[in-house]
Write a structure and sequence with these properties.
alpha/beta; Rossmann fold; 2 domains; five-stranded parallel sheet; four-stranded parallel sheet; 11 helices; 9 strands; binds phosphoric acid mono(formamide)ester; binds norvaline
Length: 306
């Protein structure tokens, strides 16, 4: 049996994805009821962060601790990863001492190379191309508030970035329609779009994408690693703010999500996070529960191989 990783959403089947989402809500109920559940005593998660993080780091670390295991935070600044030790060598060594590894980095090929030399499951905690863990939380949150997302319409407003790519995969796997509203030149890359013509439509207007949507999602205009483009992007994205007026074009029950951190006054209006249909705080909390369900799935799959 092959070693299972989670580098993009499509490393799971639709069936597995749905069962992880249901399990996430079940683990959430248990956690809220203060039930102790420690199936992974002695298991160690390694967390490699080449970019900053609040939610991803805390949710993974808290999650493995709640399961009875522990986590090691590894930054390139303090390890040999930052001094040029090859990914392949690092992967062999690091994975020989750990039970599961999470990586947040730049190029998606870095997590792929790490995974291909790893002896244990590898989770993508965000690359320049994908943020699949965030999608687990977003899908869980939609399901908890509105039921099945199948057949619904989701509007992605803003940059055709890593989050947008993961939304395209989710649309394909979960059976919803994705309307992407991006400024010219900032649409998702053609190589990602190519596969998803059946479920993704691109507009160069936020309004056209938002009409009748059941969920509106946005993200920062300049992602980590694009800080130098901030000023240029502020101009290009000026008419792509999610605000009360944009929400008014959508379905009355339309939810609002943002992976956070958010920039009030840029991609969202000052009060958007507090909009009556905003579920951003549940979305952030669900990172914990969704990733616990993911780690449980991967650790159990790996145990079956032994
Ligand atoms: N949404 C998200 O991944 O947040 P962090 O960058 O804080 O981990
Ligand atoms: N697109 C953003 C997401 C942050 C969680 C980034 O890559 O910086």
């Amino acid at each position: 049996m092959a070693l299972r990783h989670f580098l993009t959403l499509r490393d799971l089947s639709s069936l597995e994805l749905n069962s992880i989402l249901d399990r996430a809500s079940e683990l959430k109920r248990q956690q809220h009821a203060n039930q102790v559940y420690q199936p992974f005593k002695g298991k160690v998660l390694g967390m490699i962060f080449e970019k900053s993080s609040t939610r991803t780091r805390i949710s993974f670390e808290a999650g493995i601790c709640q399961f009875g295991g522990s986590a090691i935070f590894l930054s390139p600044r303090d390890t040999q990863l930052g001094r040029g030790e090859p990914i392949e060598d690092s992967a062999r060594v690091i994975s020989s001492m750990l039970d599961i590894v999470m990586i947040r980095t730049f190029g998606h090929n870095i997590v792929e190379r790490f995974a291909s030399f790893s002896k244990v499951p590898v989770i993508n905690g965000l690359t320049d191309d994908h943020h699949p863990c965030q999608l687990l939380a977003d899908l869980q949150t939609y399901q908890e508030h509105r039921g099945s997302i199948k057949g619904k319409t989701v509007a992605w407003i803003g940059d055709g970035n890593n989050m947008c790519n993961s939304y395209m995969e989710a649309a394909h796997m979960m059976g919803f329609k994705l309307k992407v509203g991006s400024p010219k030149g900032y649409e998702p890359k053609p190589e990602f779009l190519a596969e998803f013509a059946h479920c993704v439509e691109v507009f160069n207007s936020a309004e056209d994408a938002a009409v009748n949507a059941d969920l509106i999602v946005t993200d920062v205009w300049a992602s980590m690693g694009q800080e130098e483009e901030q000023k240029l992007r502020e101009k290009a994205f000026l008419t792509f703010q999610v605000n009360e007026a944009l929400m008014a074009l959508a379905h009355p029950e339309c939810l609002f999500m943002h992976c956070l951190p958010a920039h009030r006054g840029e991609e969202i209006s000052e009060n958007m996070l507090d909009h009556k249909n905003s579920v951003v705080w549940d979305e952030a909390e669900n990172r914990l529960h969704a990733q616990k369900a993911l780690m449980e799935f991967l650790l159990n799959e790996n145990a079956k191989r032994a």
